[in-house]
Design a protein that fits this description.
binds glutathione, 2 domains, Glutaredoxin, 10 helices, 4-stranded mixed sheet, Glutathione S-transferase Yfyf (Class Pi), Chain A, domain 2, about 5% strand
Length: about 220
């Protein structure tokens, strides 16, 4: 069996790995839509954490966590340095931004954006998480990571940008929150997504879900 990348088509966590595959021209990994399958015994046997993306190697081993998958794809491709530098110090800064994405920035996103998946979320939590983005995380992004470059510590997009930018789309589920996102962050979001036109269809799927969302909390005001 060849390697397979299990994805959820509208999920930003999957988009970054899909974009990496396409950008590097990797064609020997099959893309599998795992929608509705992540809690089934066969999937759980492969990935007990039931998450997509999951990269299943052909030899019974699988890895998950989007940033780990992107790093593997880059390291195993001859042109991988296009998205992940070979220089150890430069790579360590990209790793640092990826870890920040997973531990600081992204944990604010579900309470804001997962309403589009029909989850019942508290308005108060959504407002609190958005305030954290505004007061702290967007400053780290624009004043530290993007201080001297158009992309995170880089003049060209890397896996760190793929980890961060696609999930900013979730904020559009709350239109008044999106209105309050700083212009530099919005411009960064557009700049990164435009660089990966081959994944536009997936980016647009999430964008449509978020911009068309009109259920509970869609017009929630952000905190001052
Ligand atoms: N930290 C993980 C998060 C992955 C994740 O939460 N995936 C969600 C979709 S956004 C998922 O697969 N959920 C299905 C499930 O838990 O059954 C990563 O970066 O890959």
């Amino acid at each position: 069996m060849g390697a397979k990348l299990h994805i959820l088509p509208p999920s930003a966590n999957s988009h970054c790995c899909l974009a990496t595959l396409r950008e590097l021209g990797i064609e020997n990994i099959e893309i599998v839509n795992a929608y509705g399958k992540t809690r089934e015994p066969e999937f759980l046997e492969m990935n007990p954490c039931h998450t997509c993306p999951t990269l299943e190697f052909g030899d019974g081993v699988a890895i998950w966590e989007s940033c780990a998958i992107m790093r593997y794809l880059c390291r195993s491709s001859s042109n991988g340095d296009k998205l992940y530098p070979k220089d150890l110090q430069a790579a360590a800064r990209i790793d640092m931004a990826c870890d920040w994405r997973q531990t600081s920035y992204y944990p604010c996103i579900p309470d804001i954006g997962y309403v589009v998946f029909g989850m019942e979320l508290s308005d108060e939590d959504a407002q609190k998480q958005f305030k954290k983005l505004i007061d702290e995380h967007f400053k780290t992004l624009t004043e530290v990571f993007l201080k001297d470059s158009k992309f995170v510590y880089s003049d060209t997009p890397t896996i760190a940008d793929l980890a961060i930018a696609p999930s900013l789309t979730f904020i559009k589920a709350r239109s008044k929150f999106w209105d309050a996102v700083p212009k530099e962050v919005k411009d960064y979001h557009t700049r990164v997504l435009q660089n990966f036109a081959h994944t536009k269809e997936n980016f647009d799927m999430l964008d449509t879900m978020c911009t068309e969302y009109s259920g509970p909390g869609a017009d929630l005001e952000p905190l001052e």
